[in-house]
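Morning, I've got a small favour to ask if you have a moment. You're getting the sequence in one-letter code plus the fold written as tokens. Thanks so much in advance, here it is:

===
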Amino acid sequence: MKMRKYGLYGVVLLFIAFLFIYPLDAYVSKPGGAYELSPIVEVENGDEDDVGAFSLMTIAIGKATPFSYVAATFSDKMKILPVHKVRREGENDEEYNVRQKKLMSDSHFNAITTAFKKVGIPVEIKYDGVFVMSVLPGGAAEGKLKSGDKIREVDGVHLHEVGQFANLISSKEKGDHLTVLVERDDELNEVELTVGEIPNSEGRIGLGVQFQEDRELKTEPAVTIHTADIGGPSAGLMFTLEIMNQLMEEDLTKGYNIAGTGEMLADGTVGRIGGADFKVIAADREDVEIFFAPDDDLPQNVRELNPGIMTNYEEAVKTAKKIGTKMKIVPVKTIDDALAYLESLEPK
């Protein structure tokens, strides 16, 4: 009897473990948190006596389990995301995480350059190698390079110009050997590669890597942004506002608790992001008073092909009404829209 009883307990424990641990081929997202930016963004000798606060918002995304999948089906504060809505085709979890970190890094770059431009301070930009986003299975670099690597040299030629890497590789023929200097985990190593056909490319020749030219930014005063555990580009707008707030003597917040979301593009446009609805829920939970939401343009043909699709602003307003928040939802197409709204605010 005791053995049977223990066996039954074991089956129950295994079933519970299956419900809460077994990963499904899907993701579940839910509201994340609000992170005040003054401790995250450091401008050397920047203004620190502001009364209000700018905050970035996050959503939580994780692999679905049987339990979380069922819970999300019946909850309006959880959402099931198919794999193709999270990862690109052929992208594994490691490559996804690397891409998210790179998007965050690019967000830092655009936020700093935009903020300094707005306050009239020049910045110095130089190109600094290429960043490996992913390695194609069956390509020349498979097993030798990996996502997250930075290629600094090709056959002894230092990469410091736009288009230089692509030009050097395109000059090679199938079977040619080359040596790349790779930075990985703060160490430099030479890697030997043989140029071959790029998988599924109709005979094109190359290394079989997806890459992005990397850039190094130098500013005076120096800016440091601490976001080791956060990925993606959606904090760009709020980074820009916080950097400007520390560069300027005036308090852009006017004493309010302000949050928002939106990618900061190089031309000052605030780009569309995912999870605007959950970020509104999280912001309301943190007593945010003003929330900036991208007022992205959705052409009519896009709306026709995607019935029910909404701009980030429309989605944010709908969620705000649903939860009954008093938080003000403000539409922004550009950084100038956000600054104009802040300028019009009466100090709290």
